[in-house]
Amino acid sequence: MYLFTSEVVSPGHPDKCADIIADSIVDAILSKDPNGRVASEVFVAGKHIVIGGEIGSRVNLSHADYRRIAIDALKKIGYNGKNGFTKAQCLHPDDVSVDVFVNQQSADINQGVDQTSGETGAGDQGIMFGFASNECENYMPSAIFYARQICNKVYEFALKNPDKLGVDIKTQVTVDYGTKSNFEECRPQSIHTIVVSAPSVESLHIDEVRALISKLIDEAGLPSNLFDKSRTIFHINPTGRYVNHSALHDSGLTGRKLIVDSFGGYAPIGGGAQSSKDYTKVDRSGLYAARWIAKNIVAAGLAKKCTVQISYAIGVAKPVSVSVDCMGTNLRGVSDDVLSEFVLENFALTPKWIKEKFALDRPSTATFLYADVAAKGQVGDPTYPWERLDGVEMFGRLCEIDR
């Protein structure tokens, strides 16, 4: 055996609640002021929500506005008070208090971001990593992709059946690659272990809960060539009781689910959160650009998997560095050196370029909302603009260049 595991949490997890509330604020600002600057943090604990950070915008949100945004986000997540859990077992929106500590963005930062040339400087220094693999149809690695499939299935059931399950859900999938070589070559062999923890109402016996979630796993769409139920190990609500949940029993904080939000541990991460920030913060926009590059390289058939690193200096528009690493899985004779040089020469990768390519300054229900991205994960959803495969043809031409 050679095992690799990834974890996923649902929008109802307290950390995700914090992310979603923070990105609901980003949506509220940018939908009315595309030039707004946002870097807020959200802390959810018990019946309290604390919102802090820096915002520079012509949109002036009142305390009542922040409270409405937070409560509406909780209700959309599933904490709407219309479920089978008591107020001692689960967060109810009517009980929530909201404190707001928001300042103006520093002028020192702003002078480097909004440049007189019309260019946009990076809102912070840092490193970002994008990753792609040919293991699944959306070019995500296996373990996190299947963990998301299961989590989404259980969460959707919980939303439709609040008299049975709650929305604070965690899933985990272990994939057996058989050998280290198979892992390196992106050849998963089987789903080895599945872990699901989903809150259930007190009236449901644990055997009923496990049978219900087992059925949902069967319906999650796992590939039949990898998922053999008779050989897979299951841990469903392994303590035997999971009734008390939500921020009443586990506090949440913005940016604490970075591996869940990205590639499930298959690739490095820069360490900076995406949620709560506008597009000038390269922790967000740099990740999207790096993922787009890596995905299009793999989709063009140039490698089986690919990691792209981009780094920035605060107030400087162009990246400090860009590197491509296909980890020895290069195909069609195109090396990492060639790929790195090609990316540097053909894509500006400034915050302005990234913003315009993916319309990051115009979140809407017709395109994407940052709150939905926070709920579903920062990468991997085919509806996101940075998941488009509109660079495949351009990368494919590398094979035709006489090097």
Give the strand order, joined by hyphens, for the main sheet.
1-6-7-8
In helices, the fraction of residues equals: 25-40%
Q: What gyration radius follows from the Cα positions, in whole Å?
A: 22 Å
Q: How many helices in DSSP terms?
A: 12
Q: What is the global morphology?
A: flat
- What does the main sheet amount to? 4 strands, mixed
Protein architecture, described:
By secondary structure, this protein is an alpha+beta fold. The protein is built from twelve helices and eleven strands. It has a four-stranded mixed β-sheet with strand order 1-6-7-8. The chain has a four-stranded mixed β-sheet with strand order 4-3-2-9, covered by helices on one side. Strands 5-10-11 form a three-stranded antiparallel β-sheet. α1 crosses α2 and α1 runs antiparallel to α11 (370-376). The longest helix is centred in the middle third of the chain and has 19 residues, at 142-160. It is flat. The model has no long low-confidence stretch (mean pLDDT 94).
